[in-house]
Amino acid sequence: MLFAVVLAAPVFAQDMIAVGWSGSVYALDSYTGATNLLGYGAFGQNAVAHDDTGGLWSTSRGASGSVYSLTSLDPATGAASTAAANFSDVRAMESAGGTTLWAIVDGTPDELVTIDVLTSQVTVIGSTGYTGVQAIAALDGVLYGWDVNFGLLTIDPATGNATDVDPAVGGSGDVQWLARRSDGKLVGGHNGLYEIDPSTGGTTQIA
User: Would you say 84 and 69 are in contact if contact means Cβ atoms under 8 Å apart?
Assistant: First the structure.
């Protein structure tokens, strides 16, 4: 299970970093799907994002299955350091500017929140109205989300309310992350890598 974020600069010719639930951290080529194992972070990684200062952030889940942490990742080695314990069950993260991240916290329904990575403060923006949101990404001034049942959503960053881009196009569990690629395309994936049409939510497999 992979979750990816765009890198500020390529690593081993790959332009994103992806994390896996088992703790693995990879450099990922978002054009070909090629990966290079960088190392291991923490078990239960379920999201990854960088802030605007270059910090790389992820999540972890304790052995009990109910204790979550915010972690800082070393982009060269993948090593994880705990930034905040007893954290929220975060399913997706995206830069919101400066040292703030947008994030999706699992719930019934899921909530849009912000995370101040300097203080680890979580601020609830509001309910998305959906329960399967596993990914978010900002593209051309729009915050997008992906619900595994309903597909591509737009999310109001002021209220958290989400809207299905095209109700006729359903979701897929094979999209667990979203990111803006360097050419301006919206991409996402899980076991496969896909280009996603932001106007319809349709997916085209790349690799």
Answer: yes
- Span 76-98, pLDDT tens digits: 999 999 999 999 999 999 999 99
Nearest to 51 by CA among 113, 110, 118: 118
Give the C-alpha separation, 110 to 132, whole Å: 7
Tell me if 125 sits within 8 A of 157, measured CB to CB: yes
If you count DSSP H runs as helices and E runs as strands, how many of each does the chain have, helices first? 0, 20
Assess contact for 102 and 94: CB atoms under 8 A: yes
Here the tokens at position 80 are 């994880």
The model's pLDDT over 116-145, given as tens digits with 9 standing for 90+, comes to 999 999 999 999 999 999 999 999 999 999
E strand or H helix at 10: strand 2-11
